[in-house]
Amino acid sequence: MANDCIFCKIVAREIPSNFLYEDDYFIVIKDINPHAPIHLLIIPKIHIRSINDLKEQDKELVGNMFLVAKKMAKEQGVNESGYKVGFNVEKGGGQEIFHLHLHLLGGWKK
Predict the structure, then answer these.
(1) Contact 91, 104 (CB under 8 A)
(2) Could you tell me which residues are beta bridge partners of residue 104?
(3) What local confidence, expressed as pLDDT, does residue 3 receive?
(4) Helix, strand or coil, per DSSP, at residue 15
(5) What is the DSSP letter of 81?
(6) Residues 72/13, Cβ–Cβ less than 8 Å
(7) CA 47 to the chain's CA centroid
(8) How confident is the model at residue 1, as a pLDDT?
(9) Among the listed residues 21, 19, 100, the one whose alpha carbon sits nearest the alpha carbon of residue 58
(10) For 6-106, CATH number?
(11) From the CB of residue 89, how many other CB atoms can be counted at a distance below 10 Å?
(12) In terms of DSSP H, where are the helices of the chain?
């Protein structure tokens, strides 16, 4: 855990948050500054700063992030209407919290 990482503090339950999903490896929460009607964050429980810090052994973790996103899209009712998933990488790529997380956005009207 990074001492000053807000997501690490949420994972450790030092900062209260409503988990929409939790397993041994991930939590899912709503983004507090949503850019879509549905804007979720899939967050690994282990601290990885960004995509740039991924290692070979993280392949399975990243793959499983997408499976959690698929599950959450279905639970949120956007799996058929459509949704976006994406990573922001470093400040120039829009990353504001330096703990790897996957955005799931959807729920726009057609």
Answers:
(1) no
(2) 40, 85
(3) 72
(4) coil
(5) T
(6) no
(7) 12
(8) 63
(9) 100
(10) 3.30.428.10
(11) 13
(12) 6-11, 59-75
In the chain, domain spans = 6-106
Catalytic residues: 101
pLDDT tens-digit readout, 33-57: 999 999 999 999 999 999 999 999 9
Q: What is the pTM of this model?
A: 0.94
74 token code pair: 């279905």
Contact between 64 and 25 (Cβ < 8 Å)? yes
Compute and round to an integer the Cα radius of gyration of the chain. 13
Question: In the chain, which residues have pLDDT < 70?
Answer: 1-2, 110
Amino acid (one-letter) located at 69: A
Assess contact for 99 and 47: CB atoms under 8 A.
Answer: yes
Q: For tokens 């948050």, name the residue.
A: 17
56, two tokens: 């070979």
Q: Which two tokens stand for residue 68?
A: 């959690």
Chain mean position to CA 88: 11
Residue type present at position 10: I
